[in-house]
């Protein structure tokens, strides 16, 4: 398969049809491992950490955000004839609405390097005209808080302290008041969050205009 002029059909189309794209006819066979197993594997975080250590983790970018993990696996199989396990990266508040990303775990380091090399040297176009971008993935293990132990408090003493606190308690608001430092910090945080959302929104809006303009120019050619 020549990546320089290759173009993949939409992953939701029939698997056993030959599709013609320009000068190339691409046969889309059924994946040999297309059947999903009902056996539950290891947690994804553990598999991703292991793949990162073994060099089999690849980050694929520029997908349509509507793609599913199964469709990404189909694209990798049709484009490179390599089986893999893929997972679309969940979007967050500041994620681009125009592009999706997926982490892909290959069976061998050689397969992962081959896919990245072919994407660097050639150009694999998806059905919507997007070029697929790939790189060796990285994974940083999240540091979990360490719980060193617990303190044993005498039950009777704890009950006496609680009764004393209830007697001495005064009515107070659970919300920050305008005359407190917490209130000022919260208002400042809300202002910064609004500014951040506005900046990201304007950026993605501009990107959307540029993408539509580029697609129109490509169709005109």
TrEMBL record:
SUPFAM superfamilies: RNA-binding domain, RBD
Domain of life from the UniProt record: Eukaryota
Gene3D superfamilies recorded: 3.30.70.330
One term of GO molecular function: RNA binding
Region span, Disordered: 1-23
Annotated PANTHER family: PROTEIN ANTI-SILENCING 1
Protein name from the UniProt record: Protein ANTI-SILENCING 1
Organism of derivation: Prunus yedoensis var. nudiflora
